[in-house]
Design brief:
Elements (H helix, E strand, L loop, with lengths): L1 E2 L21 H14 L17 E5 L5 H11 L6 E4 L6 H10 L13 H13 L6 E4 L5 H13 L7 E5 L5 H11 L7 E4 L14 E3 L5 E4 H14 L20 E2 H13 L11
Parallel strand pairs: 2-3, 2-5, 3-4, 5-6
Antiparallel strand pairs: 1-9, 7-8
Helix pairs in contact: 1-7, 1-8, 2-4, 5-6
Length: 281
């Protein structure tokens, strides 16, 4: 049995003078449970021995540069013949621009006034040897719903006979992105969609101040991560605040498992201030 209760909403205090501190054991467990749910992985890896060849690999714009590396490796391993990069200018764009500017590998990549897809496509061409002819660019979307809608519209204009798609996205946004693409492809019967989050975020211990990737590298502060996952859980809801049919109508109704909902509600009650940081389209 599963449920999709309405999101929790609070009148929250100002964020000033609040600092990120270590989390307790319950909060750590709740964060990791939610993270594992959001970071959807339909396959164990993107090895060609594990995943059937796909018609297109879709990389959605975000500030998680690891997704670019993984997408490029999958393409070079022959997993797909085309790589579609989706992303215009949205809430995550300043974070992507900052991440690229601060990465010592990408000092030659211009970020100013460019959409996410243009920045990422240049990284793929210049630093990962992905040929320009293999890259498709969707540069108008401003949120996950439009990532799906506009990417599918672009693919319909190509001569590709679309039968399979592999999606990569910021791991906190992977499940929502999957649902958006599934909705956008609802009239394309028989198209297989597989999600692969670039990593599953983990709060390593109850005293942690940062959230790590699978190699133990710090990715977000606990405070930032809490806001991200609370916002994502709200958007998966089917109510006036969510992405479901009774809200923005970007996705179909999603049945959220009971254990994930319980973890979300405990975390929301414990961290009401994080709702001020949570709203990302």
């Amino acid at each position: 049995m599963s449920r999709s209760d309405g999101a929790l909403w609070f009148s929250v205090p100002s964020e000033s003078n609040q600092r990120s501190g270590p989390v307790g054991a319950q909060a750590r467990d709740d964060m990791n449970r939610i993270a594992a749910y959001l970071a959807r992985r339909d396959v164990a890896s993107l090895s060609p021995t594990v995943v059937p060849h796909a018609d297109v690999l879709v990389l959605c714009g975000s500030a998680v540069l690891a997704a670019i590396d993984i997408a490029a490796t999958a393409f070079q391993d022959g997993l797909a013949d085309h790589l579609l990069v989706s992303g215009g200018v949205g809430h995550s764009t300043p974070h992507l621009r900052q991440a690229v500017r601060e990465d010592p590998r990408y000092g030659d990549v211009s970020t100013d006034a460019r959409p996410e897809s243009a920045i990422i496509a240049e990284i793929l061409r210049r630093h990962h040897a992905v040929p320009d002819a293999a890259i498709l660019i969707e540069a108008e979307s401003t949120n996950c719903g439009e990532n799906g809608e506009f990417s599918v519209s672009l693919l319909k204009l190509t001569p590709l006979k679309l039968r399979s798609v592999i999606l990569l996205q910021d791991p906190t946004m992977q499940r929502r992105t999957h649902e958006c693409f599934r909705r956008s492809l609802r009239d394309a019967s028989g198209v297989r969609i597989s999600s692969y989050a670039p990593f599953v975020p983990t709060v390593p211990d109850r005293d942690a101040r940062n959230v790590n990737d699978e190699d133990g590298r710090a990715v977000w502060s606990v405070r930032r991560f809490t806001a991200l996952i609370l916002g994502e859980m709200c958007r998966l809801h089917d109510d006036e605040h969510g992405y479901g049919p009774r809200g923005a109508d970007f996705i179909d109704h999603v049945d959220i498992p009971n254990d994930v909902m319980d973890a979300y509600q405990r975390l929301a009650v414990a961290h009401p201030h994080s709702f001020r940081e949570a709203w990302r389209p």
